[in-house]
Amino acid sequence: MSRLLRLAVCQYEPGQDLAANRTACRATLEEAARAGAQLALLPELSLLPYFCAVQDPRHFDLAETIPGPGTDFLAEAAKSLGLVIVGTLFERRAAGLYHNTAVVLERDGSLAGCYRKLHVPQEPGYEEKYYFTPGSAGCTPIDTSCGRLGVLVCWDQWFPEAARLQTLAEAELLLYPSAIGWDPDEQEAERNRQLEAWITVQRGHAIANCLPLAAGNRIGRQARPGGSCLFWGSSFISGPQGELLARASETREAVILAELEPGRSEQLRRTWPFLRDRRVDAYQDLVLRDTVHDPG
Amino acid sequence: MSRLLRLAVCQYEPGQDLAANRTACRATLEEAARAGAQLALLPELSLLPYFCAVQDPRHFDLAETIPGPGTDFLAEAAKSLGLVIVGTLFERRAAGLYHNTAVVLERDGSLAGCYRKLHVPQEPGYEEKYYFTPGSAGCTPIDTSCGRLGVLVCWDQWFPEAARLQTLAEAELLLYPSAIGWDPDEQEAERNRQLEAWITVQRGHAIANCLPLAAGNRIGRQARPGGSCLFWGSSFISGPQGELLARASETREAVILAELEPGRSEQLRRTWPFLRDRRVDAYQDLVLRDTVHDPG
């Protein structure tokens, strides 16, 4: 990122009508371009309904190759609007091998790179381990004309490890396409705690790594057995000190914008040199899932 | 933590007068006990001026053994007030070997355990690498009658790695004795970003680990060459979803309180099972400080 970067985050409702999803996606990208954005972040599974609310083998028919129709659609938008675009697709890599894959389209329509979601959730209404094989290529930033993008996907956003790995690999900006919401039957106080936790933990990643960060989320309701999920919108852009630069509503389609200053992260890291002081000699247990320790 | 835990955080101004520091510390501990607290968290270097503002070999005379006069003083308070107490001392472990060491006193006056500050800062006004040898024993919780305490110290609070290590070792509560402040000549907007970043990154650790968390900070001004540091107070207690339960002022002595619910962390981790989904197979670069990667 060598000059002021104008970042847009597109929030819309991808539903059951695949053609309508493309129309909604394209409309927000056009709005971003009109507003002078150079980079646009889309919600997770940018062109699809949130089919993971149930485990249904027929839904694997929604998957596609990369490159394929989804990247073709986004590449055309990237080229005609002059935008770098970040979204995710349901990737069919081989028969029986599917991923939730972030794709980054350069403004000339070329595919700048991919990232396969590393942390995959599984709970009622978010049956993602059924559909998505977790990525194994780690967290590597993707170089673009808008800088070195640390792209992660939704559930990754709860893991400080993922943000740190992108940082150590010299990401300049953390981007999270997302699909997260409430149980609308949950009590309001708990719903608010969940939403604020989602924003705060990501602002924490921005701070700990001195990097700007954005999350693009879906809106709208997705039925699931016994209830529904209401995607909570609230897409946001944080500066590298965790300061909120823009935040969308919980319910409405939106394009939010912020200008990111080149060199700000390095300036901050000279004031608060966290990366200098990491104690890698003491971090061995971070790469273990189960340890034997003496509770006494 | 098997029952409701009443936690107090003591905020006061330790200055050049060592006897007055003990008086201020004891007064806030008495207030905590009167308020029914079972556990009290003190600021960093709980009984000393912030001598690290300059590099002066005479200041090593302030160091003491553990156990020693500092633990004797805190042990007497712990026993007479019936409190578990967490603070830090300037430890002399051997000639020429000094640490910034957290001590935990059980309510019977015994020493429950120690933790030597792992991440040590060094910048103008915070000349800690000159004084403190970093701990090498890692991040291990300390068992007490108030639960399994994940004690970390100040600069540690910017490192998600430290909070995660305590979590993986089954800490039930994260506690950060702190000594952090502003340059009072800094612009107000920047001062506010720094303070909010300090609170937010720690709330992020609470969320990522589903643990309650508290930070106890100093107040008052410490001169340093060419200026001063104004400790910003703002001690706080966060719940395991990052929700602020209590927050002290920036300038005044205070004892803040919160009640922590046993079992809440486990309940949260069943809803958002982050620990289940850590991708330890992809975390190898976290234990490297420098990696070779191909920037192209």
Short description:
The first copy, chain A, has helices at 18-34, 69-81, 128-131, 160-168, 188-209, 264-271; strands spanning 5-11, 39-41, 84-94, 97-105, 111-116, 142-144, 147-151, 173-177, 181-182, 213-216, 219-224, 227-232, 236-238, 244-247, 254-260. Chain A is an alpha/beta fold. In chain A, helix 2 links the parallel strand 2 (39-41) and strand 3 (84-94).
Write a structural description.
Chain A is an alpha/beta fold and 296 residues long. Chain A has one domain (5-261): Nitrilase/N-carbamoyl-D-aminoacid amidohydrolase, CATH 3.60.110. Chain A is built from 6 helices and 15 strands. The first copy, chain A, has helices at 18-34, 69-81, 128-131, 160-168, 188-209, 264-271, and strands at residues 5-11, 39-41, 84-94, 97-105, 111-116, 142-144, 147-151, 173-177, 181-182, 213-216, 219-224, 227-232, 236-238, 244-247, 254-260. In chain A, the strands form 3 sheets. A 6-stranded mixed β-sheet of chain A has the order 5-4-3-2-1-15. The first copy, chain A, has a 6-stranded mixed β-sheet with strand order 6-7-8-10-13-14, with helices on one face. Chain A has a 3-stranded antiparallel β-sheet with strand order 9-12-11. The radius of gyration of chain A is 19 Å and the shape is globular. At the A-B interface, helix 4 and helix 5 of A face helix 4 and helix 5 of B.
